[in-house]
Each structure stands twice: as structure tokens, then as C-alpha cells.
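Following up on my earlier thread - several people asked me to post the actual chain instead of describing it. Fair enough. Here it is, all 169 residues.
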Amino acid sequence: MTRGDLSVLLDSNALGSLLVLCATASFALGSTLTERLDPDLPPATVEAWSMLLGALLMNATSVALGEPQRVPLAPDPLAALGYLSVVASALGFLLYFSLLDRLGSVEVNLVSYVAPIVAAVVGWWLLGETLDATTAAGFLVVFAGFCLLKRRALHRELRRFVDDGARAD
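Reply from S.P.:
Thanks for posting it. Predicted structure:
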């Protein structure tokens, strides 16, 4: 995070930040293109192929970078690998692509803005991490952006709520 200090863009961690930015942009582009391509394959098949190709690309990249190619055969790393493979990846992306097919890329990707907020709150609640004013301001910016993007739908729901309340009286 830069927190307004742009000198961190020249620091040694800049590559990591750039890769995170590229990953986010790739995910958004991929979901938008997937929506527009409208393949004849069911979402589960599209997910399986994309995960297989993505895994092969990531493994080839890690081999090219000289990273170790083994998973420790201990219960904790195997449980983490199993969870990430089955729950977070397979089930998560199956749900994601099913919703993408029904709702569209803009609606589905709005959920990704909630993930950092949930992570920060869970970190505060379970790990005792601090939530400072900058974090709270960031949450408010995300919330305001969501409200601006969904202003028409929120207005319709508010109107319906007010109308239902008036009828109940």
C-alpha cells in the first residue's frame, strides 16, 4: 500500500505490487471476455480448462524462476493445499462462473470489493490487528463507490421500502 507515498513505487517491493495489479487487471479482463465470448461449454467445463491452463502456466513460471517444486508432506501444508484446491479454487470459481453467466461481470466483480473489508475485520476480530482511520476511510470510499455504481438499484429498493412502509400504516 502506498498510503499516499509514491516513492514506494521505486522500492524493491514494487515488482510484487505490480504483479498484484496485473493479476487484478487480468482477472477483470478475463471475466469480461468470458462473459462476451459466451462459450457453448457449461461454466464447470470452462472453469476446469481455465484452472488447468492457469496451473500449468504458473508452474512453468515457477520452474523458470528456479523455485522449489515440492510440497512438504506434513498435515498442515497438505490440508492448506487441499482447502485452496477444492474449496477456494474449484468450488469458489464454479460459483463465480455460474454467477457470471447469470448476472454479468460488473455485478459479480462487485463482490471482490468486499473481500479486503472482510479480511480486515476478521484480522481485527480474530488476530487483534488494528483498524486505523486510513483503513476506515478506505472502507468508506469503497462503500461510496458501490453506492454510486448501484445508485439506480438502491433508489428502486428505497422507493419500494418506503412504499411498502406507507401501505403498512
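DSSP finds seven helices and no strands in the chain. That should answer part of your original question.
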